[in-house]
Amino acid sequence: MAQHIIVVDYDPCWEQKYLAEAETIRAILGENCTAIFHIGSTAVKGLKAKPIIDIMPVVRDIAAVDEKQGAFEGIGYEYLGEFGMARRRYLRKGGDERTHQVHIFQETDRANIERHLAVRDFLRAHGEIARQYGALKETLARQYPYDIEGYCDGKEAFVKDLERQALRWKQNAPSSI
Question: Which InterPro entries does the record match to this protein (predicted)?
Fold first, then answer.
């Protein structure tokens, strides 16, 4: 069965779910992990979102993460390697009814780290844009309930513009790292 795409109102429990999972991930990555962040829509209070917790660990050595594949699989993650993005390690949990996604970057990959944090922080600081984004996602989830490609294609232009705005805004904001 295909992934069921649903968008729901913000749930304050998402923060606790992130914290619990982040602790487990940090334990697996050990001293290689230099930071870990809650990213994506569930990290923005008030934003409608798919109820999937996005987590971004930052590590010293991305290649060393591959040695932890078995440990991640042991707690229910599917380990997908780069999965279309060079120098990233991507993991997901929950099968078609996904609950968590992990995007691991090496600390020297500043562009990808900053991009994710800039979008999160921009949405946190710009409630009207977050509301518009949530409304778009809700509409697309109704339109494409089992078509993740259609859902993603439908928000692609908005997300690209959002990233551009967020990165410009972030140049004038303090660093999250």
Answer: GrpB/CoaE (IPR007344), NT_sf (IPR043519)
Name the one residue in this structure whose structure tokens are 């959002």: 162
Domain range spanning residue 147?
Answer: 13-167
Q: CA 3 to CA 94: how far, in whole Å?
A: 10
Reduced to 3 states (helix: H, G, I; strand: E, B; else coil), residue 8 is: strand
Distance CA 71, CA 162 (A): 35
> Is-above-0.90 flag for pTM?
yes
Phi and psi at 174, nearest 5°, equal: -65, 150
Q: Give tens-digit pLDDT for 127-162.
A: 999 999 999 999 999 999 999 999 999 999 999 999
Number of domains in the chain: 1
Q: What is the CATH number of the domain that holds 97?
A: 3.30.460.10
In the chain the first and final C-alpha atoms are separated, in Å, by 39
